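ARCHIVE CARD
Drawer: 12
Card no.: 0347
Subject: one protein chain, sequence and derived structure
Cross-reference: see card 0346
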Amino acid sequence: SSQYTPSTMPKALVAALTALPTIAAASRPLLVHRGLPPLPSGRSVTLELANLEDAGTGGTVWSSSHALCRWVAANLDLRGASVLELGCGTGACGIFAAGLGARLALLTDGGPPGVLALARRNIDRNRGLYPSASVTTASYAFGEPLPSGDFDFVLGSDVAYHGGIEPLALTVRRLLEASSPPRVLLSAPDRSEKSGASLTQRLIGTARELGLCTEVKEEAVRQFALHESLAAEAVRTSVLELSLDRAVDAAAVEVACMRVNAKPSPSIF
């Protein structure tokens, strides 16, 4: 999803993202990502990408999306399920879920308008993988009132970012307070902040403060490239499942939630 401005992103990341439109212009009018794991049918999701100016970091498919799609395909049965994707960016995880048989997938993002426009194009591009499913988009920023609907699963890849971890954890808390709570699965790279703490560690700590348990479902290092035309490098990613912790002090959790809710939403543009 659209998490950073160029001024707050690592220089190497800015360079790689800036290269994508150049690659597209040199090779083909449209830059397409075909690297997600194949579906059980043997067919593949293909995703249009966008440049940094149009969609921020939401225009690229990240290693976390690959990790989450791979884990979901191996461990969950999404046939007939309803799925909410947080910080959808290109729509990779929500579209992949629909390809696995989800009857409904709502793809949300709080980034620039170009992000959801890109996700909608990718929904249409892959329509043949899920002809009877409802796959739609909605604008949603962490901490806002929840999107309407009941969901069986909530997916989010690379959605933990500096300044946005607390609103993300609060959103997850609200989703899990539903009468029939969904399973919430998030994936994140082992990316560190200036303080030295990884974003994953910060997410786990903040989730604990808000009365959430975090279980690491997978932690793996795999080779990953932003595009087939770029060199791959080793990236460590984690897949986490969040759930309510019934054993925590309810009063302390309420105070923590009120504190987070009172903060202004961080700007990510």
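Annotation on reverse: The longest helix spans residues 11-27. DSSP finds eight helices and nine strands in the chain.
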